[in-house]
Hints:
Spore Coat Polysaccharide Biosynthesis Protein SpsA, Chain A; globular
Amino acid sequence: MKPALVVLAAGMGSRYGGLKQIDPVGKNGETIIDFSVFDALKYGFNKIVFVIRKDIEKDFREIIGKKYENRINIEYVFQKLGDIPDGFTVHGSRTKPWGTGHAILCAASAVDTPFAVINGDDFYGSDSFKVLSGHLSEVDKNSNEYAIVAYILKNTLSEHGFVSRGICTLEGENYLNKITEYTKIQKSAGKIVSIRGNGEDLELSGSEYVSMNMFGFTPGIFEHLKREFADFLQKSAGDPKAEFFIPTVISNLIQAQLAKVKLLRSNSAWLGITYQEDREYVKNSIKSLISDGVYPEKLWN
Length: 301
């Protein structure tokens, strides 16, 4: 069974200052999403589901979607603040989406096969799609064994400010025990620290495995997400900044022994744009991959 790819592209890009998903980074105006779709096609994915906001639909379809409409089955779903269970309300001052867990839940009606999840503004690399496709192609669609493609922390930092990362703790060599979200991670005086805000900054080695929101799921995840989202809203619906993060859901499922999550290691380098200043580095890195023959000069002929 060929897997689907769910691309989370509804984020607002507040620190970046614009809509990162449609910003060109390739030699011929390609976006980061273009490279992800290219890799997905190469490794056997047969459907793309874009999770976007309704207000960016026109631009997104024109700049992104129309490139692939004759190459692969595409479906659009919309992440909306009001798309919540009965009995809950949206806090009046809330403007941002509910988070990655909610975004994946929005794709439930569009996916009935094993599927991968990625962020639209992260460059995961060819080998990452290869290893995840291999896992998803072999897993039973009714299985509660999921997967995460993990990266090394020191290779995922920005030179231009702090980042948030989900640090993975393993059970044995190949399975995840939990993901712990660390905010405000940055390089400081030759070290890597997570700023705690209480005078007790946490120093990290840089060799930790981290989640970059590249997961492999089966359709059974949606029932878990529905239950976990309701629990989240029960506790946090009144907080206008609270987010329903998929790493938190994954950790909860593991601890409750409702799922196992296999850790997949990739030889690819991760690239991402958190700040405007990161864009030039990403462009130069992709240019090097093209020069090395990993990608063609022009993705779409």
